[in-house]
From TrEMBL:
Family the entry assigns: Belongs to the glycosyltransferase group 1 family. Glycosyltransferase 33 subfamily.
Pathway linked to the protein: Protein modification; protein glycosylation
Catalytic reaction list: an N,N'-diacetylchitobiosyl-diphospho-di-trans,poly-cis-dolichol + GDP-alpha-D-mannose = a beta-D-Man-(1->4)-beta-D-GlcNAc-(1->4)-alpha-D-GlcNAc-diphospho-di-trans,poly-cis-dolichol + GDP + H(+)
UniProt entry tagged with the keyword Signal: yes
Protein name, UniProt field: Chitobiosyldiphosphodolichol beta-mannosyltransferase
Molecular-function annotations in GO: chitobiosyldiphosphodolichol beta-mannosyltransferase activity
UniProt organism field: Mesocricetus auratus
Membrane protein topology class: Single-pass membrane protein
EC number from the UniProt entry: 2.4.1.142
Keyword Iron: no
Region forming the signal peptide: 1-21
Length: 464
């Protein structure tokens, strides 16, 4: 009797969805040029999916982008008439009860909510979905595709279950269930994209999913920042962050000075300050797959070398981003007593982030892939700005960073400290290794995202 009641209730709830889907399927003829892009996360912190939406719009598609709107996307996205952003609402934390129950309620809410949003959206030829997070989005998007005649495209950035395993452990029942879910519903997609050849091979061998590798490429706005724009950025940041403020006022009142640059207000000429600190940048989501204790340990050793008179510069270390472990590491940083290293942990506007990368002297990446199969997009953006990078090593990092050619890889704080010492020795000597890496990045033939997308993804969605 109870089972019959549950079945009737499910039918009553699903009937409107099925009827709406059937009606939309009849409307499908006009949907060939429409694509829905789904991000069950913050759109502003999902650059690859923003790039997909922009590329689809530039290729003649109308795009509906569904996602959370916690941070502002790029202006190009907001100003494009072919892109409509549909903001999703997040379920507030229950704040009580077992964690498993809270997670279950959240998944059910997101499934019903996303289902309703999708069936109320104009029918589409394709649904582009970012994974992770794929629970419950993969199943919902597949179901909507079945009733509305849309083809599901999954862009595999990583495996969701492997990220969950960082918190719960690999044998936790929730992790095992998530892995089964991801594998089962992932096979139901029509087209799969992934970020590395290693992931493509793993999907084929262990998941029986055929995917096309679409490497992340920097967008056109990731480039070296001219000195006058560097000065404007530094002055803007100096109003909020002391690390960017000049240690001394200029003798000439007609001069404007930051910690790194000086501008003659009359002529507008900008120059780098003699003896300025080096600018080190690291961007992060402040999650378990990035161990910032490695960077802190390396900078402590760097501080000791600086005090011993090794001809090393002072450092300003800027760590950008938002995430759950941000406050934890900010507290650790506040407990350190550095004299020659200053820290700054801003959340930058979307337009300022490329300018910062294009102004920096060195990038550091601490991303340790939970699956060992994805690549850090932050390094791609740094390379687009011709910014040399030191990156912590893992399984497939060689597909992006070639040690000694376009950057350096390290395994622990000791190695990173030695690399910082080598790169910043006699800074800013143009004959140093830091400048050699930058020169090699400038001279390298590097595709931009638009070119790469046109070559790889566009033929798939127009001929599939």
């Amino acid at each position: 009797m109870a089972a019959t009641c549950v079945a009737l209730l499910a039918l009553v709830l699903l009937l409107p969805v099925l009827l709406l889907g059937a009606w939309k399927r009849g409307w499908q003829a006009g949907s060939a040029s429409h694509v829905v892009v789904v991000v069950l996360g913050d759109v502003g912190r999902s650059p690859r999916m923003q790039y997909h939406a922009l590329s689809l719009a530039q290729s003649g598609f109308s795009v509906t982008l569904l996602g959370f709107y916690n941070s502002k996307p790029r202006d190009e996205l907001l100003q494009n008439d072919s892109i409509q952003i549909v903001k999703l609402s997040e379920l507030p934390s229950l704040g009580a009860g077992p964690r498993v129950l809270q997670y279950g309620v959240k998944v059910v809410f997101q499934a019903v909510y996303l289902l309703w949003k999708l069936v109320c959206t104009e029918p589409a030829a394709y649904i582009f979905l970012q994974n992770p997070p794929g629970l419950p989005a993969i199943a919902v998007c597949w179901f909507v595709g079945c009733i509305c005649g849309s083809k599901l495209v999954i862009d595999w950035h990583n495996y969701g279950y492997s990220i969950m395993a960082l918190v719960h452990g690999p044998r936790h029942p929730i992790v095992l269930l998530a892995k089964w879910y991801e594998k089962f519903f992932g096979r139901l997609s029509h087209l799969n994209l992934c970020v590395t050849s290693a992931m493509r091979e793993d999907l084929a061998e262990n998941w029986h999913i055929r995917a096309v590798t679409v490497y992340d490429k920097p967008a056109s706005f990731f480039k070296e920042t001219p000195l006058d724009l560097q000065h404007e950025l530094f002055m803007k940041l100096s109003r909020t962050y002391s690390s960017f403020q000049s240690c001394s006022e200029p003798l000439d009142p007609g001069m404007e000075r930051s910690a790194f640059t000086e501008r003659d207000c009359q002529s507008g000429m900008v120059r780098s300050l003699h003896g300025r600190p080096a600018l080190l940048v690291s961007s992060t989501s402040w999650t378990e797959d990035e161990d910032f204790s490695i960077l802190l340990g390396a900078l402590e050793k760097f501080e000791q070398l600086t005090l011993s008179g090794d001809g090393l510069p002072s450092l300003v270390c800027v760590i950008t981003g938002k995430g759950p472990l941000r406050e934890h590491y900010r507290q650790l940083i506040s407990q350190k007593r550095f004299r020659h290293v200053q820290f700054c942990t801003p959340w930058l506007e979307a337009e300022d982030y490329p300018l910062l990368l294009g102004s920096a002297d060195l990038g550091v990446c601490l991303h340790m892939s939970s699956s060992g199969l994805d690549l850090p997009m932050k390094v791609v953006d740094m390379f687009g700005c011709c910014l040399p990078v030191c990156a912590v090593n893992f399984k497939c990092l060689h597909e992006l960073v070639r040690h000694g050619e376009n950057g350096l890889v390290f395994k622990d704080a000791e190695e990173l400290a030695a690399q910082l010492q080598m790169l910043f020795s006699k800074f800013p000597d143009p004959a140093g290794k830091l400048h050699q890496f930058r020169k090699e990045l400038r001279e390298s033939e590097q595709l931009r995202w638009d070119e790469s997308w046109q070559r790889t993804v566009l033929p798939l969605v127009t001929h599939k």
